[in-house]
Amino acid sequence: MNPYLEVLLRTLLAIAVLLLLARLDGSKQISQLTFYDYIVGISAGSIAASMCIERDVDIWYAIIGIALFMLSSLLLSILTNKSIVMRRVLTGTPIFLMAGGKILYDGLKHAHFDVNDLMRELRVAGYFDINEVNYAILETNGTVSVMPNPDARPAKTAEQGMTLPEESLSANVVIDGKIVKGNLSAMDKTADWLHAELDRQQLNIKNVALATLNTDGNLSVYLKETGKGLRTILQ
What we know:
Layout: H1 3-25, H2 35-53, H3 59-82, H4 84-91, E1 95-99, E2 102-103, H5 105-110, H6 115-124, E3 133-138, E4 144-148, E5 170-175, E6 178-179, H7 181-186, H8 191-200, E7 208-214, E8 219-223, E9 231-233
């Protein structure tokens, strides 16, 4: 076979395989990719590139390799959707870098950040003065979420000329019907307290998709059935 024609056919086949497996793996925005998804993308792309231009690479071996990488990503996505424990192991948990306007050096150490890294991420988020930052959290996808101090965030139309109240931080205390005990404990609450609050609203924890508790004691519950049904319990 003509070598140029062979490269063309190999390239078209590689593109078709990648598109098919990417569709099976599901659609994600770049910002939502986990580190493993990133590794899978690089590895599958490298195998596909080798398959296109290296004529001594067996096509079927390359396709099997690409498929194994892509399907492993799909399998891990299923596992993380089914199990909170696997979600923590495979995708990690958010890390507090700042809280209450203070730099958390334990959080920086855990995230393998130094102060310069923190300042860079704050600048990327639009905060050049660290004194404007109340909370900074490293998300599992590598981005840093910033909650500014009330006087540093842009005022809404209804707030023009008003004194802004102190904002509270929310923690996920129930995910997919399971209690996140660490977050609940950090909010000085117990599982018994949570069950009592849900019982008071006649809610079964198995039907809860997400429940958040903020530092003001407000519990917000989102039910599985509709994704809506927000209920707020004021303490």
